[in-house]
Design goal:
153 residues; ten-stranded antiparallel sheet; 0% helix
């Protein structure tokens, strides 16, 4: 171990040292069309590990009431801003239970969008995928997931 971080073997260069490790919690905030009017949670939790420029973020959301907001589903509150571009989105997998009428179009997934939130998407066969919307959720939907994303370009 050096004062610049953890190094491995004979590599003592500070640029190659592991000098950024963090664990913590975050609060996932589900919104539809950017709003969460009347949305009530039974529970929501998030944990993360950050190693250098990589974040592993886990989350669990259980709804008690979906509320009245409409539009595309997004999860706000990521512990660190991510990096994305037109053809570069860090993605993760989710499990959705007790979904609504639009939840049968394939399993939901998430990806970092707009640097600060996760887009909830659904994919089906025939190369179709689309934003999950309020219709994919009921008053008792649960959404659990993990996303691995980069904080550096």
């Amino acid at each position: 171990v050096t004062t610049d971080g953890l190094t491995f073997g004979s590599d003592t260069a500070a640029a190659n040292a592991l000098d950024d490790y963090e664990e913590g919690t975050w609060t996932p905030d589900l919104r539809f069309g950017g709003n969460n009017t009347g949305l009530v949670y039974t529970s929501r939790t998030g944990k993360y590990i950050k190693i250098g420029g990589i974040v592993i973020a886990r989350f669990g959301i259980k709804l008690q009431g979906r509320g009245s907001s409409t539009g595309s589903a997004r999860i706000y509150g990521l512990p660190f801003s991510g990096v994305h571009s037109s053809y570069y989105h860090d993605a993760g997998t989710t499990i959705m239970t007790d979904g609504g009428t639009d939840s049968s179009g394939g399993h939901a997934s998430v990806f970092v969008t707009d640097s600060t939130r996760l887009a909830v998407r659904q994919g089906a066969f025939s190369n179709q995928n689309y934003d999950s919307s309020h219709t994919a959720f009921t008053n008792s939907t649960s959404l659990f997931g993990t996303v691995v994303y980069s904080t550096i370009a």
